[in-house]
């Protein structure tokens, strides 16, 4: 006969301290229903304490969606799905196709050497890019001046507002050139490589022929602008030479007018020649005086002093001496002045000064003329031109707007915005 398994008594719950003055009640053990064994009682007593049937309603309440979950779903629908659906509808059903024409060019400068340089072994031409001119052209393509010129040629407002309904990509004419320039910078993309000096244009339009026409007009206007830069450079190179030449001409005129005025006042064309003539006359008078004195000496040996021939010889000598004194006075000899209060030494000195001024003015004029000719030749040898390495293309298919890329970008942006709003909401909720 087997021994029955002993039943462990269930420990009674600890008695709580009764408030002061309350009657003490004896501790009671667990009540057993009639007809139940100790083993059944022990098994039934452990079920509720294990938490099986009593914990099931609480787990079910945690899995049930709450109001905030419905709010998150509604916000995702309103902030992500509906806007993205509207964007997709606009891009694929409303947005007009855009065609892109491409053109590439660069500003080149060329300097042609002279024949002397060729004999010296240098190259005949040196060609290279001009970074400063390329920077000017880069800014010119985006300038208001170019937009106004092309608008006058092609009517840009009509070209850019050609779609019947496109509230985002099409141009809405306002009549203000500033709005047209702002829209121009969106439709004409300029890519400039500063290292190589190459410029590439991407012209957007809603028709292929419009994109091609805008690209060709940009290239034509750019060529005109570069030619104007070359003309300005040539003008700058010769401007200073022209100014120097004009000053030399005025100086030469002044010098020649001074000589002409001197000749009119003195009535002497060439003082040096006149002096030589006067010197010849003086020498001749001195020779005649010597002869007259010799004749008188010879006459005094044969006749007496009362002879009329002696008196005539004396008068001749006196006349010759008077003429000599008069001629010497013209040269400023003896402290006397010549005609008009001026002696020949003063006149000759003044004439020589005027002559030196005239010769200096003539040499200056010749040098200025040579400088101008050299500057003009140098300016003609240096030129700038627009080198086109990619002619304007006629697009055959629409490449813009990039619908798939725009849809992906806008979808990611909306999703990130919604996620940030959710994180902000939960961070504020957890701080309460």
Automatic annotation (TrEMBL):
Keyword Cytoplasm applies: no
Biased composition (Pro residues): 1-12
Residue ranges the record marks as coiled coil: 235-302
Chain intervals with Gly residues compositional bias: 37-50
Composition bias type Low complexity, residue spans: 13-36, 51-60
Single GO term (MF): protein tyrosine kinase activity
PANTHER family: FERRIC ENTEROBACTIN TRANSPORT PROTEIN FEPE, TYROSINE-PROTEIN KINASE
Entry protein name: Capsular polysaccharide transport system permease protein
Organism expressing this protein natively: Pseudoroseicyclus aestuarii
